[in-house]
Amino acid sequence: MTSSADLPSSFVLDIDKPIPDTLRGAVLALGNFDGVHRGHAELARVARDMAAQRGTTAAALTFEPHPRSVFRPDQPVFRLTPPAVKAELLAQAGLPLTFVLPFNREIAAVHAEAFIDELLLDKLGAAGLVCGFDFHFGQGRSGSPEMIEARAMARAIPAAVVPPYSWAGEPVSSTLIRTALEQGDVARAAAFLGRPWFVRGVVAHGDKRGRDLGYPTANLHLARDCRLKYGIYAVRMKIDGIWHDGVASFGSRPTFDNGAPRLETFVFDFSGDLYGGQVDVALVDWLRGEAKFDSLEALIAQMDADSLRARDILRQTPPFLP
Known about the structure:
Layout: E1 10-12, E2 27-30, H1 38-54, E3 58-64, H2 67-71, H3 83-92, E4 97-102, H4 105-108, H5 112-123, E5 128-132, H6 145-154, E6 159-162, E7 166-167, E8 170-171, H7 174-182, H8 186-193, E9 198-202, H9 209-212, E10 218-220, E11 231-239, E12 242-251, E13 262-267, E14 278-289, H10 296-315
Parallel strand pairs: 1-4, 2-3, 2-5, 3-4, 5-6
Antiparallel strand pairs: 7-8, 9-14, 10-13, 11-12, 11-14, 12-13
Helix pairs in contact: 5-6, 7-8
């Protein structure tokens, strides 16, 4: 396999077409990897160690869209990481290449044995396989970690099943993190992710009310499946590779219009033009719930208090890495 420095960050698989020889022969870490949390980092560590022993590179294999959205489109899953961000975080975890398998009902109907033998071992030429204890796949979700181990052994290829990974005495899972975010507990989510949860988007024009109130904001429209609790948060925004402290509101603006939800961030001590630029907003801590105010004066007074509290929290928060 080509060295990791020469690999693309992601490669979309077509089951009917071969892949370049330069991408074959990796140790594959298998999973949805939504959030790329501490448990996923452990999976990546095991894959990296196996790859080092085999003299090759570790890579991830994941699915897009999330399988639940295919089978239950009326109940969209709250995605923690969109595809591009997921591949970026996996690379930071030591999996420089992410194979993306477009998921649909045809893929779901593939027999589990064929998924392993024909896709993982033949097409991708896997030098090793790593999965979590709860990884299931193939027709009727009949594929299991035990099947992966057995079929890999039949080809004299190593396989490893990573047991549940716990942090602070609790098993880490994407579901646990989603629940924390739905409750506004971004600090708890960060503990299990291993970093603050962040969103990425292009700054859009808003109604300019914040500017009139002395709090000009950078506005992001989050994914419709986002179920982050409405409220006010201490945040950091990444602008041109540099993190800046700020305070943000996520919600429907009940004082004004109860409109479509958006994330509105006021960046402290910043005066540049952000419109049309891509930014990351990391949610550091919860301040309060969204509220309706009887007057603009009351709203501004609360915004002043929110800003002071956010500055204090962020002053005590270690700097983020780039």
